[in-house]
Amino acid sequence: MSVDLNVLKDQLDGRTARIALILGSGLGGLAGDVDEALRIPYAEIPGFPQSGVSGHSGELVWGKLAGVPVILLSGRIHYYEQGDAAAMRPALEALRALGVEILVLTNAAGSTREDLPPGSVMLIDDHINYSGLNPLIGEPSDARFTGMTEAYDAGLRAHMRAAAEAEGVTLPGGVYMWFSGPSFETPAEVRMARLLGADALGMSTVPETILARFLGLKVVAASVVTNYGAGMTGAELSHAETKDVAPQGGAILARILKAALPRF
Question: Could you tell me which residue ranges the Nucleoside phosphorylase domain spans (predicted)?
Answer without folding.
Answer: 18-261
